[in-house]
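Task card 7
Instruction: Convert sequence to structure tokens.
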Amino acid sequence: MRDRTGILLILAGALLIFWNLCCPFGGTAAEGQEVCTGGIASMKPSGCLQLTGSSSMEKYAGALAESFMEMYPDTAVTLQFTGSSAGIAAVTGGSADIGLSSRYLKEEEKAAGAVENIVGYDGIAICANPANGISGLTGEQLSQLYTGKIRNWSELGGSDLPVVLIGREAGSGTRNAFEEWLGLTDRCTYAGELDSTGAVMARIAVTPGAVGYASLEAADRMGSRAKAESAGAYGMAESRAETDLVILSLDGAEPSMANIRNGSYPLYRPFIMVTGGEAEKENELVRVWLAYVGSEEGIRIAESMKIVVNHSRAR
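Output:
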């Protein structure tokens, strides 16, 4: 899957050229096919679809795109990962069909015509360097860390190490959701603001005292579960560092799909497919795509990446 997704992303530039030469914006789909009726397997859409936005949704969107194009060989899906805010702006500005956002839309974005289509919920895991000597935090302790009130891990019963706060760059959906949950939007202090999940994980792994946040799937894949009993190796563009990470419990609950569903793990954010209007009024290729995302296969892909669908605890 990784190799095929890599090929998909490498072809994105060529597909953009194909888009401009051959496909009008928005693509087309077979006439008379309604997403709300019949099985999507019987549909035969064609055309080009451009998605852009959250880097946190890269693996998920890439897997969906690959599977979608296998089912519908007359379609081409191009992907760009420029951050949630940029993805939303691309849709309202008319340069993309669908924006990928890992945060809720702002009122001004809705006023510009952006529409939320929530496809699932992604847990945000708190990750730490194992040298810190901490296995869990409360929400209050996390807030005190990110406002600088707690500056050494020994204040929490951990090692005598200064706290090193790692986070995502401004405009990141992950950062927005994290700060919003803490009630600290634009008020957190960071020692490092990095532009990808991989960069955050790599920095934490090689920095004693470091703590940060990442999507549950990425944290689960790259790190160890809460006791630092094992370490894995993960190749990243930013670094080839050995990852040795602790995934912390929060308010006594481990980050997991089950705990997000039952409400015991409180820190998560939405995964949203943003459209430039109500989904049922979009062009047919967009509607077929959204139907595929919500299909049995789309849900299987989501859950394989620890994305919670049909989450009853939406805001």
